[in-house]
Every structure is written in structure tokens, then in C-alpha cells.
Write a structure and sequence with these properties.
The complex is a heterodimer. Chain A has one domain (36-251): Orthogonal Bundle (MetI-like fold). In chain A, 80% of the residues lie in helices and 0% in strands. Chain A is built from 13 helices and no strands. The two termini of chain A are 36 Å apart. In chain A, 35% of the residues are buried. Chain B is of the alpha+beta class. Helices cover 24% and strands 35% of the residues of chain B. Chain B has helices at residues 42-50, 92-102, 107-120, 136-148, 166-183, 194-200, 218-223, 228-233, and strands spanning 4-13, 16-26, 31-35, 57-62, 65-66, 77-80, 154-158, 186-191, 203-208, 211-216, 238-246, 251-254, 257-260, 269-274, 280-281, 289-300, 304-311, 314-321, 334-339, 345-347. Chain B has a six-stranded mixed beta sheet, with helices on both faces. Chain B has a five-stranded antiparallel beta sheet with strand order 13-12-11-14-20. In chain B, strands 15-19-16-17-18 form a five-stranded antiparallel beta sheet, with no helix packed on it. The radius of gyration of chain B is 24 Å and the shape is elongated. Chain B starts with a strand and ends with a strand. The chains are: A mainly alpha, B alpha+beta. The A-B interface holds A 155-156, 159-160, 162-170, 173, 177-178, 181-182, 184, 254-259 and B 50-52, 71-74, 77-79, 81, 83, 85-89, 98-99, 102-103, 130-133, 143, 146-147, 150, 156. Chain B: This is Putative spermidine/putrescine transport system ATP-binding protein.
Chain lengths: 261, 349
């Protein structure tokens, strides 16, 4: 009886999750009357604006990941190694983006860095891109920091660092050749989550007036019928591909096989 | 001049003084063990030599050079850790060659040195494996090879055998000593295992509460402990309260039986000590002192049987060899114990 109830709840949950997705995919395939086709996808992929915004967001994602790795890995490493007392404070700080809405942050940026401020970043395209990059890095901070910190927990950071130091390695070598490769799976997990966040982000990109994929999705949604569903399916597939890649990387990481053993 | 000198080394963590006025000189090629219980400061001394801790005061010189202000990666030391600390993302060969790669050695030279080191530790065919594919003993050997590969001036071993099982521990410690002697490298070995320290060291520093209680050869440390702590910590020792009858001539009594040491003793009372192996069951030739007692405990250890006797209210442990045809005395048996007065140690208060 209990077993049947558990299965029923699971099934109900599954339907609740899958049904809207199935509806979305089904609708995205229904552009041609009476037959299923990939017409909506063809139209979307042929749109130069799609290619432009998609490329922009991919580039921004990669830059955000790069910046995030350069910021988070040394910070989490240093906190674990030298300032373990500061860990709760840093964790709290990294959680801030979850409680401060993106719109508040971006208005703060615009107010601080507008054309009449001491650092008029919004006055140039590069400046706005830089601000958006910082915003994205901030949004991804909770996920990136947690992923890296969890990765660092699985290795003996202090002893590995001391071993490398005793062999003549400096901080850069230690970080690049010892710490980073050993938390690579964790870093990639954080990176894929960051990629997914940046690809779908709307608020910051829209208010900083940058040609990102998020605002393009919104624009299409407001003006077209089938294409937004095709775009949503594409965005959803990207997210799932990222999750699949996390699994793949974890599975094929050579030196962590023993831990999974 | 000594190769490595440590002068008036002090280390405090907050109000806690963990190393107090520590002095030591080590000759080139010497194997020194820092021996003591947990929390005595031995690892802190080692970490200060390595550069992982900064001394509160004092000086450390390696080959005449003050290294206190140098970072760990500038000190030319090799270190082996208790937890192996092999880099999990690198193969055995890459681990061994890491130090050489870091200091910019040419690739071919790295390869030949790695091969040489792997042969030295007896694992010439395991270069392509990852650390997780090795046993604990193999991992620690690789850690040793990795530490030695860049030809450091000093080798530091921080309880390298503690995580291994008993048999591997014995064979690996012999291997470490053989490699150290072959290379002639100055070595500091930290351990809390007295047997380890006694078996492989040129000299031992027995540490207690941040102080070097005694520095000496294993023979000196074992046979002539300088303090009550050293006497109690190194080996098993019977401490016996003795009533001094003639302090100048060294006449005293243990459990009512007269003992003539022939050495000056403190007036009133003295603490004498005897190793279990210097006491014989029954009257033995060459032993000049006989004590009467009653067996209170029998502990069969295989080749040796450790017996415990009550001698005039004092507990004395002593050893007898196992003889299959002669069963050991049972508790309650009245026995005689014999010992030589010259084997008795006078323990300073």
C-alpha cells in the first residue's frame, strides 16, 4: 500500500514536471498546420538577431566563467588555507546575490557608474559589457563558490600546498598545477551552472541595454507565437546539456575514479 | 661548524608556548629523531625548519645560512608527510618530477632523475600509475622519492610511518635509513614511536612540553635517561623508591633488601630505576642483588614473558624468555629476583 502511494506521488510529480515541457515542445513543432515540423526552429536559427544575441551570451558566459574561476578559486583556497575563521562570513557574502534581486543590483550599477559619475562605465559599450560581466559574475557567485568550496573539501588543501611548497612551488604554480586540477570537476560544475544562468538572464542585460539572449527571448515572446517556444526548448536543452556535461566530466575524471570506486 | 643549527627557538600560539628555548646542532649526513608524546612540540620544530611556521624568536641556520626569513620554497628542503600528500592529479613519475619541473630542470634530466629515484625506492615500473592505484607503503615510498628528487639539503620526515600497518612500518623504516645513508642526506625524523626512533637514528632528541629533555645516541637515551620523563617515556622502566642509608657510599634498600650501588646518592630518599630485561627470575650468576617478591601478573608476549612482582610494596616488571618445557610462575608464587647494582639508574628528581 505504502509502495503504491509512493509510486503514485512520484508519478504525479513526474507528470507535473514533464507535462508543461511536453506541451512546450509539442507547440514548438506545430508551426505548420496539421503536421509536426521543425519550421519554428528553422525560422529562429535563420534569424540574424538570434545568432547575434546567442553568440553574445555565449561569449559573456565564457568570460563570466573565466572571471569567476579567477576570483573564486584563489579566494576559496585562501579562506580554507589561511582564514578558516572567515569561511562563514565569505559564505554569507556569496549568498547575497540570492537575496538581493538582480534589478536592485543593476539599478545600483547604473546609479554608481552612469555618465555623470566618477567612473562612467555606462557611457561606452565596453564599459556596459564590463558592468554586465560583473553582474553575471555576482549572480553566479553562490553556485560557483559552493561548488569550488565543496571540491576543496575533498582534498587535503593544507598538506598538498605544503608538499608543493617544500618542492619549490610558488603560489601561482600551486594554484594552477595542484589545486585547480584537483577541483576541476567542481569548477566545471560551477561553470556549467554559470553558463546556464548567463544564457537565460534577462534583467541585467535588458536594463544595461546589451544584446543578450535573454532579452531576445523576451522580445520574441512578446511578438511571435511559435518561435518563443522553439527558443525556450533550445534554452532548456542547453541547461540539460550543461547538467549532462557535469555528469560526464565527473565520470571521466581519471584521478577521481578511486573516490567514486 | 654544524650543518644545521637551531638556536633558542621559541614558538607561541597565543598564550600557549609550544616550543621553549630549543637548541640543536646537526652534522651533515646525520639522522636525528625528534621523539616525544603528542603535543610536545616536535612537529612544530620540524615545521619551523621547513618554513611552514614562523618562530616567535630564535634562529635556524642551514649550511651557515639563516633561513628563518626564507619561504618554504626557498629553503631547499624535502619533506615527507604522514598523509603521503601525493598530488592526486599527477602520475607517480609526474609527482617525483614535480620539484625538478618547478625549478626549471630540462625534460631529459627530469626523466633520468625520476627513473633513478623510482629505482632507488624499488618501484621502477610504477611511473605511469596514479597515487590511488598504489598501496599506502608504495605511496609513502613515492613521497620519499619525490622529496629526494630535487636533491634537497635537508630531508624532513613528519611521522611518515604512522599511517602504515606494523609490518610495512618496520620494512619501510629500514628502507628509509638505508636510502638516507646511501645518499648521506641530513635528516630530521619526527615520531612518537620510541622503537622507530631507537632503531634508525644517529641521535635522538626527546621532547617534553616544548623542551628538549635529552639529546643523545639511542644507547645513551635508553641506558642513561637524563630526566624522569625520558626514563618513563623511552622503553619500560621500573621506578623504585629507595631509602638511602649511606649517601656517600651509595648504600640503600629496596623493599627491605640491601643494595650497594657504590655511587653517591642523594640523602634521605632516591628514585632508582631498572629495565625489565636487567632483572632475572631466581638467583642468576653475575647478579649481586637479590630481592624477594610475589608474582602478581603474567603477560605472555611470545618469545618473552613479562612478569610482574610485588617487592615490599613496590611493583617490578621483569622479563624471562619463553621456554616451552618450563611454564612461567603463576600469580601468588613467592620468587626471588636478581639484578646488578650497576644496572640500576639513579633518576634525578
Amino acid at each position: 500500500m505504502k509502495r503504491a502511494a509512493a509510486w503514485s506521488i512520484l508519478l504525479l510529480g513526474g507528470i507535473y514536471f514533464i507535462l508543461p515541457l511536453a506541451g512546450m515542445v509539442e507547440f514548438s513543432l506545430s508551426m505548420k498546420r496539421g503536421v509536426y515540423s521543425l519550421e519554428a526552429y528553422r525560422v529562429v536559427l535563420a534569424d540574424p538577431q538570434f545568432r547575434q544575441t546567442f553568440t553574445y551570451s555565449v561569449v559573456m558566459s565564457l568570460l563570466t566563467i573565466l572571471f569567476g574561476v579567477l576570483l573564486v578559486v584563489p579566494t576559496a583556497f585562501w579562506v580554507r588555507l589561511k582564514m578558516p575563521w572567515a569561511r562563514p562570513y565569505v559564505e554569507f557574502l556569496t549568498l547575497m546575490p540570492l537575496v538581493i534581486p538582480a534589478i536592485v543590483t543593476v539599478f545600483g550599477y547604473i546609479r554608481l557608474y552612469n555618465t555623470s559619475s566618477w567612473l562612467p562605465l555606462t557611457g561606452t559599450l565596453m564599459g556596459s559589457n564590463f558592468l554586465l560581466l560583473m553582474g553575471y559574475a555576482m549572480l553566479s557567485l553562490p553556485y560557483m563558490y559552493r561548488a569550488v568550496d565543496t571540491g576543496l573539501r575533498t582534498i587535503d588543501v593544507a598538506t598538498l600546498t605544503e608538499a608543493a611548497q617544500s618542492l619549490g612551488a610558488g603560489w601561482t604554480t600551486i594554484l594552477a598545477r595542484i589545486i585547480l586540477p584537483n577541483v576541476l570537476v567542481a569548477v566545471l560544475s560551477g561553470a556549467f551552472v554559470t553558463f546556464a544562468i548567463v544564457m537565460g538572464e534577462f534583467t541585467m542585460a535588458a536594463l544595461l541595454n546589451r544584446p543578450a539572449f535573454g532579452p531576445y527571448l523576451q522580445l520574441m515572446g512578446a511578438n511571435k507565437a511559435y518561435e518563443p517556444f522553439a527558443l525556450s526548448t533550445i534554452a532548456f536543452a542547453i541547461t540539460w546539456a550543461c547538467m549532462g556535461l557535469i555528469q560526464l566530466v565527473t565520470r571521466f575524471s581519471k584521478h577521481t575514479k578511486a573516490a567514486q570506486g | 661548524m654544524s650543518f644545521l643549527t637551531i638556536e633558542h627557538l621559541e614558538k607561541s600560539f597565543g598564550p600557549n608556548r609550544v616550543v621553549k628555548d630549543f637548541n640543536l646542532t646537526i652534522e651533515k649526513g646525520e639522522f636525528i629523531s625528534l621523539l616525544g608524546p603528542s603535543g610536545c612540540g616536535k612537529t612544530t620544530v620540524l615545521r619551523m625548519v621547513a618554513g611552514f611556521e614562523t618562530p616567535t624568536s630564535g634562529a635556524i641556520h642551514i649550511d651557515g645560512k639563516d633561513v628563518v626569513r626564507l619561504r618554504p620554497n626557498q629553503r631547499s628542503i624535502g619533506m615527507v608527510f604522514q598523509a603521503y600528500a601525493l598530488f592526486p592529479n599527477l602520475t607517480v613519475a609526474q609527482n617525483v618530477g614535480f620539484g625538478l619541473k618547478v625549478n626549471g630542470t630540462a625534460r631529459q634530466e627530469i626523466q633520468s632523475r625520476v627513473e633513478e629515484m623510482l629505482s632507488l625506492i624499488g618501484l621502477p615500473d610504477l611511473g605511469a600509475r596514479y597515487p590511488f592505484q598504489l598501496s599506502g607503503g608504495q605511496q609513502q615510498r613515492v613521497a620519499l622519492a619525490r622529496a629526494l628528487a630535487p636533491r634537497p639539503q635537508v630531508l624532513l620526515l613528519d611521522e611518515p610511518l604512522s599511517a602504515l600497518d606494523a609490518k610495512i612500518r618496520v620494512s619501510l623504516r629500514e628502507e628509509i635509513r638505508a636510502i638516507q645513508q646511501k645518499l648521506g642526506i641530513t635528516t630530521i625524523f619526527v615520531t612518537h614511536d620510541q622503537e622507530e626512533a631507537l632503531s634508525i637514528s644517529d641521535r635522538i632528541v626527546v621532547m617534553h612540553q616544548g623542551i628538549a629533555d635529552q639529546v643523545g645516541t639511542p644507547f645513551e637515551i635508553y641506558n642513561n635517561p637524563a630526566t624522569r620523563f625520558v626514563a618513563g617515556f623511552v622503553g619500560t622502566l621500573n621506578l623504585m623508591e629507595a631509602k638511602v642509608i649511606d649517601a656517600e657510599k651509595g648504600v640503600t634498600t629496596i623493599g627491605g633488601a640491601p643494595v650497594i650501588l657504590g655511587r653517591p646518592l642523594p640523602k634521605g630518599k632516591a628514585t632508582l630505576a631498572a629495565r625489565p630485561e636487567t632483572i632475572r627470575l631466581g638467583r642468576a650468576p653475575g647478579k649481586d642483588t637479590v630481592l624477594a617478591g610475589k608474582i602478581t601478573g603474567v603477560n605472555f608476549l611470545g618469545s618473552v614473558i613479562r612478569l610482574r612482582a610485588d617487592v615490599g610494596g613496590q611493583v617490578i616488571d621483569f622479563d624471562t624468555f619463553n621456554a616451552p618445557g618450563v611454564p612461567p610462575p603463576t600469580p601468588g608464587t613467592e620468587v626471588e629476583l636478581s639484578l646488578s647494582a650497576r644496572d640500576l639508574l639513579v633518576i634525578p628528581e
